[in-house]
Amino acid sequence: MMNTRPVPLSNATLAELPEYVVGPGYDRATLTPGIVHIGLGNFHRAHQAWYTHRLMQMGLAKDWAIVGAGVRPGDSAMRARLLAQDCLSTLIELDPTGKSAEVSGAMVDFVAVTPENGPLIARMSDPAIRIVSLTVTEGGYYTDPATGALDTRHPDIQHDAANPSTPRTAFGAIVAALRVRRAQGLGPFTGLSCDNLQGNGTILRQAIVGLALLSDPDLARWIDSECSFPNSMVDCIVPATGPAEIALARQMGVDDQAPVTHENFRQWVIEDDFCAGRPDWDRAGAVFSSDVHAYEIMKIRILNGGHQVICAAGELLGLGTIAATMAHPGIRAMFRHIAAHEIAPHVAPVPGMTPQDYITLIETRFSNPEIADTTRRVAFDGSSRHAGFILPSVRDGLARGVSVEGLAFVSALWARYCTGQTEAGEAVAPNDPNWPALHKAALAARTRPMAWLEQESLYGKLHQDARFADSFCRWLTALNDHGVAATIDRFCAERVA
C-alpha cells in the first residue's frame, strides 16, 4: 500500500485517493449539520463520527452532519488542522492481519474557539442542531468526589453561575444556548455524553441542570423537563496521533495532518431517549437498549479497569505500550487473575457475552501489537480513572466478602508510580491533573503506606477497612523493598494458579 506521492486530503482531491482507501460515497455538499460535538479528538472521529459516516454511505442521515467544537485554547490547533482539510479524517484500522483505511466525511465544520464561547453558544442555539454530544474526559464533569454531586465550589462553575452569558465551560455554554432556545421558542436538544462514565447521561444532566439552578431556576426546571440525556456505553481503543501515525497515513497514500488509528473493534450501546430526533445509528451497528447500565458496567469494570490494572506496572517497567505490557508474562497473569476473580464477580452478563468471555476478548484486544496505545496515555488522570474504574470493584468486593487482594496491589502500583520514578530510576513526568498532591502522598507513603489511602478525596473511608488497607500496605511495602518486577512475580506465585 505504498504511494510515493500522498494525496493532500481535501474535498477537491477525494477522487484522487488510492483505490484501497475508501472515501465518502456521498456528496458532502448536500450535508447539513444536526450535531455539535464538544471535545472533538481522535476517539470521537473513530467512533460516533464513524457511525454517522457509515449511515451517510448508505444514503441516510444527511441532515445529521457534525460540527466540531472545543472550549480549551488547545482545541484551536485541532480546529486549524481539520479545517485545512475540509474536516475530513483518515481512519486507519490496525488489525493484526493487515491495515486498511477509509476517509470519513461526516464532519463539516469546526466552531471558532473563544474564551467566552460566543460562537459555540450561537451554533448550539441554531434549531437545526438537535444533539449536542461530548467527549470531555472522565474528570471533566466537575463532580465532587466526596458527594458525587456537581462541585459548585469549583472556580469554573462559580464563574459560569455568575456570568451565564460568557461561560468558560462546555456546560455553561450548553446552558446559555438552551436559555436562548427557550426564550425564542426553538425547543430543546439532546445532550449525549460519550465519555467512559457509569451513567454518563445522568451525570451530564446533573452538570447541566445543576449549573442552570445556580443562575436561573426556571430555566433549570425547563431543561430537566424538556431535554433528554441518554446514557451510553462507548468502546474502541484509539491511540493518540503523532508523527508515526501521520507517516503511516502518508505510506497509505494520504497526506492527512490529523489521521486516526484504531483497533478493529467498536461498540456503542445507547438509551433510545432523544427529545429532538436522532440518526438511525443502529443501522450502522450501534445498539439501542433500555439496559445500558449492564453493558457499561462490563466495559468500565473490565476494559477500563483492566487498563488501570496494568498501565502503572507497564510504565514502571519501561514498557511503552499496552501491547508490550500484555506481552510481559507476569503482568498478563496478574491481569487475568484480577479480572477473573476480583472484577468479574461483580459484573452481570449481557446479551451474547459473559464476563469471562469479555475478559478473553479484552485480553486479545489489549495484546494487538499493531495498536501503539501508550501506557502513559492510559495511565493519565489516574485520580479520575481509579476512582471510576477500580474502586467500585473494591467496594463491591468488600461488601460481598470477595477478595480485593489484587485490587489493593493495583492501588499500590499506582502509588508507586506517583513517586515519579521508574524501576530503572528514570523520571516519570507529571501525568495527572492532581499530580502535586499525588506525588506528595506517594513520597510520604514510602515510610508510612497509609498516607496514600488517607487521601479521602480519592478513597473515601477505605483506609478504615482493614481488609483493603492491610493488603495495600503489604504490597506497597513489598514494591518499595523488593522492586516492581519481583513483587509482580511474588503476586503471581501467591495468587495465580
TrEMBL record:
<dbReference type="Pfam" id="PF01232">
    <property type="entry name" value="Mannitol_dh"/>
</dbReference>
<dbReference type="Pfam" id="PF08125">
    <property type="entry name" value="Mannitol_dh_C"/>
</dbReference>
<dbReference type="InterPro" id="IPR036291">
    <property type="entry name" value="NAD(P)-bd_dom_sf"/>
</dbReference>
<dbReference type="InterPro" id="IPR013328">
    <property type="entry name" value="6PGD_dom2"/>
</dbReference>
<dbReference type="GO" id="GO:0050086">
    <property type="term" value="F:mannitol 2-dehydrogenase activity"/>
</dbReference>
<feature type="domain" description="Mannitol dehydrogenase C-terminal">
    <location>
        <begin position="291"/>
        <end position="475"/>
    </location>
</feature>
<dbReference type="InterPro" id="IPR000669">
    <property type="entry name" value="Mannitol_DH"/>
</dbReference>
<feature type="domain" description="Mannitol dehydrogenase N-terminal">
    <location>
        <begin position="34"/>
        <end position="282"/>
    </location>
</feature>
<protein>
    <submittedName>
        <fullName>Mannitol 2-dehydrogenase</fullName>
        <ecNumber>1.1.1.67</ecNumber>
    </submittedName>
</protein>
<keyword id="KW-0560">Oxidoreductase</keyword>
<dbReference type="InterPro" id="IPR008927">
    <property type="entry name" value="6-PGluconate_DH-like_C_sf"/>
</dbReference>
<dbReference type="InterPro" id="IPR013118">
    <property type="entry name" value="Mannitol_DH_C"/>
</dbReference>
<dbReference type="InterPro" id="IPR013131">
    <property type="entry name" value="Mannitol_DH_N"/>
</dbReference>
<dbReference type="InterPro" id="IPR050988">
    <property type="entry name" value="Mannitol_DH/Oxidoreductase"/>
</dbReference>
